[in-house]
Specification:
The chain is an alpha+beta fold. Helices cover about 20% and strands about 35% of the residues. The strands form 2 sheets. A 4-stranded antiparallel β-sheet has the order 2-5-1-6, with helices on one face. It is elongated.
Length: about 110
């Protein structure tokens, strides 16, 4: 099995999940709220008349655990759906091997 992780812009989360389901039929995902930055500039906030600059931007971390045969299709679907057209800030996608998966309820190993 392969774990596919992707950092995406929050507004693209549903689009990416739908794209993965449409392309591969895989429906399981974990979504984690995250903040971070890469090459894209930060944002400026105004609160009670004061201006604050933050280099961290809101993102989402999507985690898929899929069969080896689905991994490439999941990565392609994520990359296509997460692309915003901006110069930077669309996020990253990476994979890593999963050695053991066990269902909590049944104790069944996949």
């Amino acid at each position: 099995m392969i774990k596919v992780e992707a950092v995406v812009v929050r507004e693209r989360v549903e689009t990416v999940i739908d794209a993965v389901e449409d392309a591969t039929g895989h429906v399981g995902v974990t979504v984690i709220e995250a903040i971070g930055h890469g090459r894209e500039p930060g944002v400026t906030h105004e609160y009670r008349g004061r201006v604050f600059e933050s280099r961290f931007l809101p993102k989402a971390l999507l985690v898929f655990v899929v069969e080896d045969s689905l991994a490439d299709g999941v990565v392609e679907a994520i990359a296509d759906a997460a692309r915003t057209g901006h110069e930077s800030g669309d996020g990253l996608c990476w994979t890593s091997p999963v050695e053991d998966v066990t269902h909590h309820r049944t104790g069944e190993r996949l």
